[in-house]
Amino acid sequence: MTTRTRTLGGWAVLLAAALICALGGWSYAQARGDGDLAYAKSRDTALADGKRHLARLNSLDGKDARSVDAGLGAWLAASTGPLHDQLKRTRSKDATELTKSASTAKGEVTDAALTALDERTGTAEMIATVDVEVTPRTGKGGTERKRFEATLARTADGWKVKALTAIPVGSGT
């Protein structure tokens, strides 16, 4: 092999590497600006926030007045719009009733999905199944399975629950 052949071969390898790098950079730039990718990220964020807040709205430590007050504050932090206004309006009555019952509830979202997402208006619809483990002060507790339909709204603090509707569990399939 001559020196000239080696030099041409080296240039060819360098040119091929430069083309591959350029193609990779172009591909990355296309994907970074991809609307589908942005929509998927928004969907994932809305779903994660919705699940976290729905679990919070189904959890409360009722062992004493301070715990109940902190729990009701967490409910307010998880909500926005009409649901937030309703929780704020009934907070003192709820605190009294929950302190009397002294029960503890811990909600865990077992399954959830977004059924709609409108990035332009900042709204989403979610359905979810929540297992709520209830521990009363006296007596035997248990786990309740609940289903919900929630409307989420995008706020400055992320997605929050705007409306919440319990879906009755049917007796059939």
Looking at this protein, list some descriptive labels:
173 residues; alpha+beta; Nuclear Transport Factor 2, Chain: A; 2 domains; 5 helices; elongated
Topology of helices and strands:
Layout: H1 3-32, H2 35-57, E1 60-61, H3 65-78, H4 81-89, H5 91-101, E2 104-118, E3 123-135, E4 142-155, E5 158-167
Antiparallel strand pairs: 1-2, 2-3, 3-4, 4-5
Helix pairs in contact: 2-3, 3-5
Q: In terms of quaternary structure, what is this?
A: single chain
| Major sheet description | 5 strands, antiparallel
What's the CATH architecture of the largest domain?
A: Roll
CATH topology of the largest domain: Nuclear Transport Factor 2, Chain: A
- The average pLDDT score comes to 88
Shape: elongated
Can you tell me the residue ranges where pLDDT is under 50 for at least 5 consecutive residues? none
Give helix % range.
40-55%
Q: CATH first level of the largest domain: which class?
A: Alpha Beta
Written account of the structure:
By secondary structure, this protein is an alpha+beta fold. The chain has two domains: 1-32; 44-167, Nuclear Transport Factor 2, Chain: A (Roll). 50% of the residues lie in helices and 31% in strands. A five-stranded antiparallel beta sheet has the order 1-2-3-4-5. Helix 2 (35-57) packs antiparallel against helix 3 (65-78) and helix 3 packs across helix 5. The longest helix has 30 residues, at 3-32. The model has no long low-confidence stretch (mean pLDDT 88).
